[in-house]
Amino acid sequence: MESGTNAVTVLYYEQDDMVSLCSDVLTNVRIEADKRVIFPESFRDNKIIIAVLDGNCHVRNSLGDRPIYASS
């Protein structure tokens, strides 16, 4: 696979807030041939990156969130 650019969604914790899961969509990030995403240095500062997802993803619920179920 060739290297290129793409959009990714990054799930992470801020180092000073390990309770709230955060997400950001980054566009035009460099992706290496081995599928490794190269983040700008400024983005990585003070973050603990949990996952990198292809494309623009929306996090509906995360650990600790209570989903609301419709009654039947």
What labels describe this entry?
72 residues, mainly beta, four-stranded antiparallel sheet, 4 strands, 50% strand, flat
User: What is the element string, with H for helices and E for strands?
Assistant: EEEHE
Distance between the termini: 48 Å
Task: Give me the secondary-structure category.
Answer: mainly beta
Number of domains: 1
Give the neighbour order of strands across the main sheet. Answer: 3-2-1-4
In round numbers, the mean pLDDT is: 86
What portion of the residues fall into strands of 2 or more residues?
Answer: over 45%
Sheet with most strands: 4 strands, antiparallel
In terms of quaternary structure, the protein is: single chain
Coarse morphology? flat
The residue fraction in helices comes out at: under 10%
Whole-number radius of gyration? 15 Å
Unreliable sequence segments: none
Count, helices? 1
Secondary structure: number of strands: 4
